[in-house]
Amino acid sequence: MSEKVFPKDFMWGAATASYQIEGSPLVDGAGSSIWHRFSHTPGNTYNGDTGDVADDHYNKYKEDIALMKELGLKAYRFSISWPRIFPYGKGKINEKGVDFYNRLVDELLKANITPFVTLYHWDLPAALQDLGGWTNRDIAYWYTDYADYMFQRFGDRVKNWITLNEPWVMAFVGHFMGEHAPGMKDLYASFSAVHNQLRAHSKTVKAFREENIKEGKIGITLSNTSHDPAADSQEDIDAARLAHEWSNYPLFLNPIYKGDYPKGIKEHASEFLPHNYENDLEEIKEKIDFVGINYYSGDLVKADTKSFLGGKNVERGLPKTEMGWEIYPEGFYKILKGVQEEYNPKEVYVTENGAAFDDKVVNQEVHDEKRIEYLKQHLEQALKAIQNGVTLKGYFAWSLLDNFEWAWGYSKRFGIVYVDYKTQKRIIKDSGKWYSQVIKNNSFEF
Ligand code: LGS
Prior knowledge:
CATH topology: TIM Barrel
Number of strands: 13
Catalytic activity: Hydrolysis of terminal, non-reducing beta-D-glucosyl residues with release of beta-D-glucose
GO molecular function: beta-glucosidase activity
Protein name: Beta-glucosidase
EC number: 3.2.1.21
Bound molecules: ligand LGS
Pathway: Glycan metabolism; cellulose degradation
């Protein structure tokens, strides 16, 4: 067996999220979400773009599943839009919303594609934001009720569940930087969003266990950037470590696996955590089946007493993607190896990895060599991680389709399939063709 071969049964997939691809956010009785509201507020997104149409996946899901089949995907990660199911976040159920995901799941299973469902990818019902959203402690109950209902309706067919997508981004980009919905700029709100997401997550894991879903597994997806110290000085090493504990998997996995926030957070930011947060830690420590790792890029960190948590990013001259993010595949290995060493999860999935480039259609083809190179370099590191003891079971490319890239609107393309937003025509990019060979060969060398 060649060294470049992935383990048998490796779960090759691609990922999307409801608000980024579905379109039709208010049809069939769905309620408004915070992203619907945020994108419709002038000044919040590039060009005033919204998810009103997006990839029209709500209507084109069959065509999109046919594309997945053509690509040979073994798995597909998508998210459920909470306000399609509960238009007001709780209470009244919207059966037509359930129907949509029933159709989607059944079509996937017919195509022999394993669904991985994210229960929350940032489109909170707007009605719940009016009650304080993630800063209200009651959200742990609202979320668990919604999630448990999803287990009851889909658990017979969906076995792999992800509670939250990137709770750090939700908490800090949404509540501190103000660049994502709900557009707040309050560090206290951010830390209470962290804490309440953890409470919601663990209550939901408990509810999942009680449902006793045959072969069911549940995990959480976390955002990660490789933070490396700019110099070998203790100051830079400490600043990089603190950036890691704050914005990567430790902020969530330390409470989940070890029952407490990371040391650096307690030393430098505990004043922002909710009063009496300690009382919840025992409940938050709840076993999960897998950890989902999202990875895109790295940062070089220099100590800077003027910045929050004492570090700032400095340039190191690496090539960048269209987002301006460093291409740093070695950091992917460091994150994967780090999560295994620090928390020893039973299973790890890469739930997102990918890049935006300035794709051009030439004679109905998209020659995106840079994306192929990016994916190849990252898969190399993923394989190295497996060979060095990481329990990596699968990899999901971000994204299946070009889509609504949040505050960047439609200006950034992450897909392995190109979407012409005027006609809604899909074109498999060269990277998509390349990825389907990877899947077929279970190797990136062929
Ligand atoms: O589309 C989102 C992708 C794109 O890049 C997806 O919905 C999210 O789950 C995820 O956050 N996504 C993403 N993250 C990359 C963040 C990298 C930040 C690097 C910043 C360097 C200055």
